[in-house]
Amino acid sequence: MSPSPTRIAAAQPALVPVDSIKGRGSATAMPHRFEQRQREQVDDGWGSLDQEAAEEHLPPATQVIEELAKKIVTTNQSPDISFDYSVNPYRGCEHGCIYCFARPTHSYLNLSPGLDFETRIVAKVNAAERLRETLASPRYEPRSLVLGTATDAYQPVERRLGITRRIVEVLAETRHPFSVVTKSSGVERELDLIAPMAEQGLVSVYLSVTTLDNELARILEPRAAAPARRLRTIKALAEAGVPVGVSVSPVIPFINEPELERILEAAAAAGASSAFSIPVRLPWEVNPLFQDWLQRHFPDRADRVMARIRDMRGGNDNDPRFGTRFTGEGVWAELLQARFVRAVNKLGLRDKRRPVQLALFQRPVRPSAQGSLF
Description:
alpha/beta, pyruvate-formate lyase- activating enzyme, seven-stranded mixed β-sheet, three-stranded mixed β-sheet, 12 helices, 10 strands, about 30% helix, about 10% strand, disordered C terminus
């Protein structure tokens, strides 16, 4: 009988926090939950450990891994999500938001949800072609679609690759309704496409604004646009006639939670017409990564933050149940929700998504397998 593989406990935070890396949210390439091997450093007598230690102090560069996707439209199976389809042009995200619920998806690639998630970005270079094929299928039924649910479609690498741009071109051509949630000002590049779509009720954009504090933003989401820049993007979109909302998500107790009302006020002043908010979630490897981040940046309140999170999650670090995972439960979750509702009502913001316009969809011509000779 073969011995069972040694699994690395991904649910436990590091006992001794390591130094932060400038421009990165995570400080380590922590092993993922499927890891079956443990690695131990051994000195080979040639000073290799000293060399590795020196190399670890170098900021990790971003690597782009090109992928030919077999499928690009994902169908939502969750009963507590308001959209039916999602399209993710990338896997991983260079923004490096420490709280990102999508970090554990890198585990399926045998990569770390820590540094790998924000430094090894998989680019689905044929995404637009796959989308066109899907929309052309007679079996396809247009429904609500969100662009960038497990990644930011406008992360820095998009400026060079333009994968999201080509996807939006297909959606504009076919008049397929969609929404996008982003922390980037890069969405302004698409105004030539989305402004006409907005006139037909086909598009809405949500800017994620988690803090107005530049110093907090630098460590919380190190490579995303600065808070003031995101507010300017809200203004630019609103002035162009694009329905724009604000996502104050996640709300982290004692970190950005005190800013909730001020963020909503700033977004409304910039032109946001709607808002939503979700308490912080800590699924799988996000939990130890987040707790390590707390110990590195807020050791004085780390225990208090986690205690309040557990108060809203039934005594646990995370609650994955449908119906409560996006709201939390208990008195603190109810108070947080009451603050949000009071603020949006005062500011005249909607907290419900706009109805989706499906009647204008025009199915594209199905790509020919052989192509034309003339």
